[in-house]
Amino acid sequence: MTICTATTILIRRATAGDVPQIADMMQLVSGRDHSVEAVRTMTAGFAPGRFYGWIAFGGNEPVGLTTLEPCILERGGTAMEAGYWRYLWVRPDQRRTPLYPRLVFTMIAEAAGLGIDLVYGAIRRPDVAAGHIALGMQKVGEIPVLARPLRPARLFSKFHGLPDVLMRLSTVPDLVYGQYLSLRGPSIRSGYVITDAAATEVDPSAIIPTLREMYASELRRRLTSESFADRYYSNSDGAQYRVLSVGRSGAVSAAIVYRIAVRGKGIRTLVIMEMGYRFSDQAALKFGLLEIEKQALRLGCEVILSLSSSRASHTLLRQLGYFRSNETYILMKKATGRNTTAIVMENLDDWHFTFADHDAF
Length: 361
Prior knowledge:
globular; 13-stranded mixed beta sheet
């Protein structure tokens, strides 16, 4: 590996031709396979207005990358052009050089020229968050990840790397716990009808109102049929997103968008991307969350994870047995200076932020 100095490194805008190298970078960081086609889909081939990236080269070797996903944030009928900071990678031998700030400053400076008023992102690692803040990002607040263990014994065994024999012994207590979960499941007498389908197969116009109505007063991404289809076409692993909807009398009252992810140590996880309800029918969402537990068990998951800045969502999930995990995301923002009148919310309670914004899996 060639050691490059900051003066020999060139940063330029990423193009569709860079996708194979970017897929290799992502695999190096995550340890998972990211196919070229999946990364091309995720980045929209770096089509202007859809996805932007800045890639650093030392000679012919990529040594750094940062990406920005343009979106519209809206609140109370007012909208602003924003960009979500999706990805940052710096090759290990370059992490103590000026490359990291160069990538960040280049992204923010060029974002203004691309019509973006605000760059925002969420960081899990405190040391990385501190570095971002040192470069001028402003902290909005901290959002804990809530967890619902489904197979607690196997989850504990995998997390602590226990021997296979103990892993096999976890089957018995997990079976008993699974039976308990099934007893607290939704009643067929509720009148609700459950539908579970790939996100590419649902009618976005029927789902979007359930995902936005209860958050109408908070700053959130604009969600249209087109942006829903783009966002939930596939993830960087090439797997599908799914939608569990809860209906009654022909109308959708609640919806949960989710995906399956395999995290470190082989922990199989159902991730709630976002959820919501309408017609003041919170019971429909509760019904759906109980059903999603059964679905996660059928899919072999050990745990369900949810990230939401909504206090109401936290309250509901805690009532259903979710608890605060050891993971917390720090939400940050940085105005680009392009539009000094743009609305920039300082209080976390004024934001609606979920894993739909930050698919960290």
